[in-house]
Known about the structure:
It is built from 16 helices and 14 strands.
Amino acid sequence: xxxxxxxxxxxxxxxxxxxxxxxxxxxxxxxxxxxxxxxxxxxxxxxxxxxxxxxxxxxxxxxxxxxxxxxxxxxxxxxxxxxxxxxxxxxxxxxxxxxxxxxxxxxxxxxxxxxxxxxxxxxxxxxxxxxxxxxxxxxxxxxxxxxxxxxxxxxxxxxxxxxxxxxxxxxxxxxxxxxxxxxxxxxxxxxxxxxxxxxxxxxxxxxxxxxxxxxxxxxxxxxxxxxxxxxxxxxxxxxxxxxxxxxxxxxxxxxxxxxxxxxxxxxxxxxxxxxxxxxxxxxxxxxxxxxxxxxxxxxxxxxxxxxxxxxxxxxxxxxxxxxxxxxxxxxxxxxxxxxxxxxxxxxxxxxxxxxxxxxxxxxxxxxxxxxxxxxxxxxxxxxxxxxxxxxxxxxxxxxxxxxxxxxxxxxxxxxxxxxxxxxxxxxxxxxxxxxxxxxxxxxxxxx
Length: 447
């Protein structure tokens, strides 16, 4: 062995050792059925080799794709991953939704051999919006999808403008070959895209028939990010996403690369049209032909907890993750557009959910209450949610059957009992509650 080869071999020892230990931990955790091992292996590997994200991502043949935003990351990532896999590409993907540094490392480690070598074409990584500035430089992504920015876990993240400023600062330092794909209908992200030196491809809607009747209560960014003046909205699709201009400085939304009405969407809910357009824009940038994209959209199956349908005791159960005001308003819109009259809301306040549950007062629960039917509430903060619904009853005429049940197993059983065989039980849980609900219904843990 030559001196050069010896040096190269020695330099790989920490990486190979870190990956080997992490894989051993993964094997142990999964063998003992302690969970999916989606976080711990990466945590251990990063202690052994702090550069592991950089060292592994450098080996991805065609580049890393980052998907960031408040809502829709998991669904968009799964759609894009499925499209590329149908084309025959090998993909690394943090499919469990573990989107902090340890989860990202674990996803790459899972696809490496014991020496720390990767043989994949793309890494598709959904990334928590708060850590985007931390991981962009080590990952050096080829494409960054910026889905949306809403208030979410204010106890951890703060307001959306502070997140956007940090994103802009770090993204602007990346190579100009980086492609950024922001949501044109989000004023904050539309402005971000218009400030960057990189190539920018916007996605968004141009479907006035889908405007909301009024701007929702849970709205975040209706002021111009350039001058601070109130934006003039022609219409909104959800929260502050819509068609807008600033009457003061002339700022307006970016021009989407695709005509939205020409593309079908995955799953239900207008928010999934945004997820579809984001993934399609990225796929077309990577040269994927339209036939593969459309076939994938038509056959798409939901990620766990995101408009996921299960059949329990012969009854359909639909899980709609509801973890912040905008997301919950959209899932309520889905529920109220159906003829089903039984809904279970599960509110937790654990770390994955955010410990501040005051956001439920920004949710338009009045629309859910006004339609009547049976509402069951459960979770760690069951009485907070019950109180919110009681206040909603005071402001609208309704005839609901409100059931408060702190025990989740009993709450699910009660909800199923109240659901007729020809109807769907809608469950609206926060993140940790969604995992618990799925474990009760399927007997399987996700994390």
